[in-house]
Amino acid sequence: MSTEHLTRDPELQDPDSPAADKVTMAGRARRFGALHQAERTLRSMRAYGTVILFSSVSQPIMYILAMGLGLGVLVGEGGDFAEYGASSYLMYIAPAILASTVAMAAGIEFTFPVMEGFKWRRLYYGAQASPLSPGQIASGHILAVSVRFGVHAAIFTGVLYLFGAISSPLGVLMIASAMLGGLAIGLPIMAYVSTLRDEKGQMSLIQRFVIMPLFLFSGTFYPLTNLPGFLQVLGWFSPIWHANELGRVLAFGHPTPAWLILVHVLYLLGITILAWLATVRVFTRRLGLEEWRGRTPGAKADARRQERLAVKDASDVARSVPGETSSAATPVRSELPRISFRRGFGANYYSGNIRAVFGRGLTAIRNNRGVIFLSGLLEPVLFLTSFGLGISPMIAGVDAEQVGLSGGGTISYAAFIAPALLAVSAMNGAIFDSTWNVFFKLKITKLYRTMMSTSLGPVDVAVGEICLALFRGGLYALGFLGVLLVGGLVDPLAAVLMWCTALFVALGFASIGMAVTSFMTRFQQMDWMMMVLMPMFLFSATLFPISVYPAGVQAFIQALPLWHAVELMRDIAFWDFSGLTLVHISYYLVMIVAGLALTTYRMKKLFLR
Amino acid sequence: MPVEHAIRATGLTKRYGDFTAVDGIDFTVNRGESFGLLGPNGAGKSTTMRMIAAVASRSAGTMSVAGLDPEQNGPEVRARLGVIPQQDNLDEELSVRENIIMYGRYFGLPRRWLNAKTEELLEFAQLTHKATARVEDLSGGMKRRLTIARALVNEPEILLLDEPTTGLDPQARHILWDRLFRLRESGTTLVLTTHHMDEAEQLCERLIVVDQGRIMAEGSPAGLIRDHSTREVLELRFGLDRNQEQAQQLTTLLSSAPAPSNGRASSSGSASGVGFSHVEVLPDRLLVYAGSAESALEQIHAAGLRPMTSLVRRSSLEDVFLRLTGRTLVD
Ligand SMILES: Nc1ncnc2c1ncn2[C@@H]1O[C@H](COP(=O)(O)OP(=O)(O)O)[C@@H](O)[C@H]1O
Ligand SMILES: [Mg+2]
Asked: Which of residues 293-332 of A touch B (CB under 8 A)?
């Protein structure tokens, strides 16, 4: 049932459309090819349309409640933002949040689906067999994604108006500026992705080295001028900053000289047009040179290489035949060492060989480029830099009482968010490893199926993979704690305990993440995952204390796992333990056991159908 | 406790929802034997293999592999099996050598032992010159051989090969067949599926013909041909629209020809004995089943019929399948 949806393309295999229709359709397709392709892409998006609609409504509400109101309390309402023309912090960040969420969506829509079209499902090769030109296929995807951005931005803007977060009627034009920002950041990425033959972690590199920094240093949550000079320069290059600033001009008349408005518009338009042309060019080269070969389409170059290899192989084999008759090259039965399997309880699930799964992961990491591995280190450091440097000037300090610490006095904003960011990073790393990576090995490379044809059991595979996620997470945490130690934000003893806690938290999320992934059948379902993670991050006491909320909301946040991780980290960082500390630890113990049990059950179901 | 059979299945059934992929089949594979499942696409061969390999559950029936129930002792059963799936499932993040070593590690075999074993297997698969290559730099035939080498790392008693040579060019196929012969010689039990009758004839001592999840016939390739077909076949083409009417005429003509009482084996020596059995009509040609196709052809010519082309050949498993199911094996 899993392969069924992977090969299904409703348009390509439509048995109902009569042949006569196809001829006229072909003519139409030639003329309006891009629209035709856009329609096809939109139809396939319909499958996860609810996710898009739901997130368009819920995202603005969440951001308004979290950043606008929550962080707004710390920053202080009004006053500070009058000079920018906004009457509150909420109004100041609202346009930027719209532009940023579109940019984030661009990071998804212009990467994985494109890779899918070229490699994983080869949809583009199917479309190419129809009368569409490669350029039309590219433009079709871009148009479809633009429509998706448009819908998202329109709903988002509507919600902002409802909350009174936009004052000017010109604000509706933000729909256009946000779409333009999304294209300006997404299209260069699409041009790059469409040149790729293989996914070797480039997607996460783009996410971590391009989209994240451009977002974090784009003046979304504070004016860019709060940052030191060299980071401001990064912001000037970020299409997100230009889209943010344009949105602010439209939403509340952010005082901006006319020439700068022109620069914003031209910069965004320029990138969009150039990158669009580049994408069409790459598509034309790639799809133009390669022809459709019936059921197994492939690059001409690939086929030629295969042919060469086969010829070479045959001659190699032929040459080795004469000398070989005596040695006979038949594997001899030697003294076979014991193969690992168990008898008795759980023999069908566990063979006592987690080591091998872990070892395979290490070898694969070593074979891949190290930079991908190291990129995970960067994320928490970027967050700390962005929020620590950017928001600190707007916040005098955090009242210790207010955040539930017993010591009293105030603590610096950077010291307040640092332990929380470690918890968030542990969560993100574990979730990434146990969702994207596991999904990949489950559905695309089918690695687990190979493992399950040996004497390994599902528990060996699941636990081995979780250990791998922890190994990675452990290294990232080590790096981040190093930065905190150098910055004097934690002391060494706390750092050691916090490292252990990071692993503990990661274990909780990895085991749940893996269980959830085992239910997934397509990439887009990952969006649901993101939709759970987002609010969890926003309402987790990471960036501001939850005491700003009414009791009901507080109770809800306290039920979520990330809050427990953040609080546990802070307890350790500020050496302030209580009975609650035990509650946090127990919460994770339950999560780990439940996650592992569900994962094992699902693995068994998936592999022994 | 030594068990004389390698695999025994009774009433083996697999249902996917309402659909029955494997419909209550019984078979026994003896130790050291090479056993085949011959059938068209969708017959349920892969599903049967997956149930043997303890990666699919049974809907009904019993199964014992090396004396164990795969559903109860999955890892222990798989420890004794070498599995070559229909689709090569190599680890693209590892090199050729690492693919074998890691696979051995999954069985818990020690690295030192594996290092030596891997070299031996690379040589067996004629891949020594590719040991450090990336998997994606291998040709289809090389990938297949690597998959087989990898499956041998645990020195399996039973090797399960699901369509081992489908999709390979003839040369790569022959290299592979040679390797499989060697394994057969060394006493490994081979269980293979195929929809190529020549492969079944080459590699299998005994086979079952399966169609739509049921066993249609069982026996050795020669025995099946003897029991379900004539010794020879005459292939005739009269042109697309004339095949059907010619079939009638041929049947009448050849049935009246002097035939010995037993149309199959005994007619072989006599030039006058046609040993006619029946005519099959395929979309593009007619198949005349006869003990002596030459004699049949003579008769046809003598009656003044002029086929566009004619071909005399020996009966194959393809004909057995056609006889049993009324359909061709590869469509
Ligand atoms: N996981 C599955 N879910 C539903 N149907 C399946 C599944 N696997 C195989 N089938 C169906 O079972 C039948 C037999 O499949 P298979 O064993 O792969 O045949 P073969 O290997 O002989 O070509 C096919 O009709 C196939 O569509
Ligand atoms: Mg099959």
From this structure: 306, 309-310, 313-314, 316-317, 320, 327-332
